[in-house]
Design brief:
With about 350 residues, the protein is an alpha/beta fold. It has two domains: about 110 residues, no CATH class; about 190 residues, Vaccinia Virus protein VP39 (Rossmann fold), CATH 3.40.50.150. The protein contains 14 helices and eight strands. Strands 1-4-3-2-5-6-8-7 form an eight-stranded mixed beta sheet, sandwiched between helices. Helix 4 runs parallel beside helix 7, helix 7 packs across helix 8 and helix 9 runs parallel beside helix 10. The chain is globular. The two termini are about 35 Å apart. The model has no long low-confidence stretch (mean pLDDT about 90).
């Protein structure tokens, strides 16, 4: 699926674009209805056999509750029904593998973690409600794909930002006042807008300068380009207040968000600066062959003298999967000379 957006805060344009992603109206497919009915019967059987309190908002979960629930009513059964609903309601294939539907230990854990919460212990009741109401289905989808712990903050890597600001000012003359920068795996876009602020602050603006953001997930892409978080109005308001001045200024830096995979060979190139924060060497991308492919693909998008930066909060914590020395070795293997940085890792293309 090819998808790209120029960012806008115009609600009318955002809704027009959203209609191209989501199926309107109630979902009345017979296969979905049969799957929901079957799940309802499975839940009744579970509830009849379950001797502990059924889930309700605020219930304190115990290991016994989790274990019995997973044994009698496996999350995999619930997951497949929600996948069918979401696939039926989207004009694209949602990337659900990173969502709570996969990372939760049981159906009870999903209910406990998911915000804004569902009102039903019975997933069949929730599915019927979502199938019949496209507005609720849309909010559920955005909440599932953009939970509170995914991104959600600007200025996430302050030391990296200070380094970029200095590098941009030093490079302005060499680059002729024009720059192409990419925030790869940009998620919901906070880092990409922060990069655009740095680029404009260093004097790069107008025709010839561009800041792009890319991600693999269409809902993330849409949220980033439109400051659209229907499940979290506080976050949406704060996001819009932050990016509005950047998008409204005359001679604003050109911005674009497009769908792309970090490790795709042959992606858009000619970049002077690429960020890939919160991904390389962490829990989502650490398998040696995939990590090497991703770094190689990103390096291939740089011009000579271009810089690749990767800052991650997990670099100093328990979620780190790949040591810094190994990342530096991979940078060298793909033609990048490692840089001494105050935060994260990075290299310059020879």
């Amino acid at each position: 699926m090819k998808l790209s957006y120029t960012p806008t805060l115009d609600p009318g344009k955002a809704l027009q674009r959203l209609e191209r992603l989501l199926v309107p109206g109630p979902l009345r497919t017979p296969g979905l209805a049969r799957r929901i009915d079957r799940l309802a019967a499975e839940f009744r059987s579970y509830a009849d056999s379950y001797t502990l309190p059924l889930w309700a908002p605020g219930l304190v979960l115990t290991g016994e509750m989790r274990g019995i629930t997973q044994a009698l009513f496996p999350l995999s059964r619930v997951r497949s029904a929600f996948e069918l609903l979401l696939n039926s309601g989207c004009r694209f294939q949602p990337v659900l593998s990173g969502s709570y539907l996969y990372s939760s230990a049981s159906w009870l854990d999903f209910l406990h973690r998911f915000r804004p919460g569902l009102c039903h212990a019975d997933p069949a009741a929730a599915l019927r409600e979502l199938a019949g109401d496209p507005e609720k289905r849309m909010r559920f989808l955005f909440a599932l794909m953009l939970p509170h712990h995914f991104g959600g903050t600007f200025d996430r890597y302050p030391e990296q930002s200070r380094w970029i600001a200095a590098w941009l000012k030093e490079s302005a003359g060499r680059l002729g006042g024009r720059i192409r920068a990419l925030d790869s795996a940009c998620g919901s876009g906070e880092g990409c807008y922060g990069l655009a602020e740095l680029v404009r602050g260093a004097g790069f603006r107008g025709k010839g300068s561009a800041v792009h953001g890319s991600t693999l997930e269409p809902i993330e892409l849409f949220a980033a380009a439109h400051a659209f978080f229907p499940h979290d109005p506080v976050r949406a308001k704060e996001f819009r207040e932050r990016v509005a001045p950047l998008l409204a200024k005359r001679e604003a830096v050109e911005m674009e968000f497009y769908l792309d995979e970090v490790g795709r060979v042959g992606g858009a190139g000619g970049y002077h600066l690429i960020l890939c924060n919160g991904l390389l060497g962490g829990p989502l991308l650490h398998e040696p062959q995939e990590l090497s492919r991703a770094i190689g693909a990103l390096a291939a998008r740089l011009v000579p003298g271009g810089v690749l930066l990767a800052a991650d909060r997990f670099h100093a914590g328990w979620r780190l999967q790949v040591p810094a020395a190994q990342l530096r070795a991979l940078l060298r293997a793909h033609g990048l000379q490692p840089l001494e940085l105050p935060e994260g890792e990075g290299g310059i293309m020879g």
